[in-house]
User: Which sequence fits this backbone?
């Protein structure tokens, strides 16, 4: 991005500047839409700020963990995707609503870390969510999340390391726990991940002479009767039937909501595992300005910002299923 530095701020020209925070689904699709909409408006500039310089197609993240796809299949460089949008790669540290500016830092990993102020006329928030651990003891430290590319790469490495360890003669005592893989949550991310993990470890077994399929235990822990609540009862029931034909255990648990089934070291069902995956129970991120999902709270913050418009979008005339869910269905 071409920026003029002025005491740490990225100075603004006379053009109207729209700043989009976040380079995920929300941010990138907002940028693509605005790019098209404002193609003939030279007086408007659009900047997108994100931690990474690529867009990540999260619905296929588990396929990286399971070695079904290469990394380059699910990432798309932002600079290639967005031709008219200026891309700023950095960490959003703070949003200063009254002064209409955002503080962004960059230069990690041996570079000089410093911050800039980026002024805006209009702000689009699309920072996604963070994994919520409900303050369960040990969970944040020991469980693997499944939200980012490093998470998927780490999961793949941990699965392979577990198989290697379990295969060695000296690990007889630990074999059961090394070959037990537990995934929490029967939503999209949990179900896709457990299915991919299950296929991956079973296919890998042929390369480990000391391991047998009967030694494996792959468990999905889910609160409630039906998995995939996002898809409704009929599809949830169907998915559950399909999964039941595969060799892994579905462990419904009522106590999950208050955390007892997930508390590491004291699992309600007595599962001992070295690999516990906690895919995507999310809550909004925590930039210095916290915007909660509930509109009342967002309205409260934005009503204090000059010129802020918090009115809901008018409902579309006819709802169409779109986006990744349609593609993945
Ligand atoms: C494993 C998995 C599988 C999924 N499968 C499906 C599916 O099949 N179908 C479906 O509809 N949905 C699926 N989802 C959910 C879907 O990915 C999310 O609904 C979607 O990503 C939300 O889009 P978003 O733009 O709000 O957030 P995100 O896509 O998470 O984007 C947020 C962006 O903001 C950036 N960011 C966050 N904080 C900062 C900061 N402080 N500074 C700079 N940048 C920041 C992030 O790096 C990211 O680029 C899945 C999710 C996961 C994790």
Assistant:
């Amino acid at each position: 991005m071409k920026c003029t530095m002025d005491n740490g701020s990225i100075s603004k020209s006379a053009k109207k500047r729209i700043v989009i925070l976040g380079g995920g689904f929300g941010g990138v699709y907002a940028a693509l839409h605005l790019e098209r909409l404002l193609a003939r408006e030279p007086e408007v500039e659009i900047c997108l700020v994100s931690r990474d310089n690529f867009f990540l197609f999260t619905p296929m993240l588990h396929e990286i963990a399971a070695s079904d796809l290469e990394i380059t299949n699910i990432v798309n460089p932002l600079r290639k995707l967005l031709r008219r949008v200026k891309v700023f790669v950095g960490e959003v540290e703070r949003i200063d609503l009254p002064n209409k500016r955002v503080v962004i830092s960059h230069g990690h990993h041996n570079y000089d870390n410093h911050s800039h102020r980026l002024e805006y006329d209009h702000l689009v928030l699309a920072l996604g969510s963070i994994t919520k651990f409900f303050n369960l003891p040990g969970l944040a430290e020991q469980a693997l999340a499944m939200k980012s590319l490093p998470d998927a790469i780490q999961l793949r490495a941990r699965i392979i390391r577990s198989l290697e360890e379990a295969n060695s003669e000296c690990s007889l005592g630990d074999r059961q726990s090394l070959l037990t893989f537990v995934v929490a949550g029967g939503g999209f991310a949990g179900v896709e991940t457990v299915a991919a993990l299950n296929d991956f470890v079973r296919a890998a077994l042929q390369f480990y002479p000391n391991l047998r399929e009967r030694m494996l235990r792959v468990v999905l822990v889910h609160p409630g009767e039906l998995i995939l609540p996002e898809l409704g009862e009929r599809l949830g029931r169907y998915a559950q039937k399909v999964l039941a034909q595969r060799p892994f255990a579905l462990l419904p648990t009522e106590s999950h909501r208050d955390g007892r089934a997930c508390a590491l070291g004291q699992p309600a069902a007595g599962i001992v595992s070295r690999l516990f995956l906690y895919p995507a129970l999310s809550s909004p991120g925590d930039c210095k300005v916290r915007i909660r999902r509930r509109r009342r709270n967002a309205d409260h913050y934005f009503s204090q910002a000059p010129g802020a418009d918090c009115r809901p979008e008018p409902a579309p005339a006819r709802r169409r299923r779109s986006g990744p869910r349609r593609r993945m269905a």
Q: What stands out?
A: The chain has a mean pLDDT of 79. The first strand starts at residue 5 and ends at 6. The domain at 6-127+288-304 is CATH 3.50.50.60 (FAD/NAD(P)-binding domain).
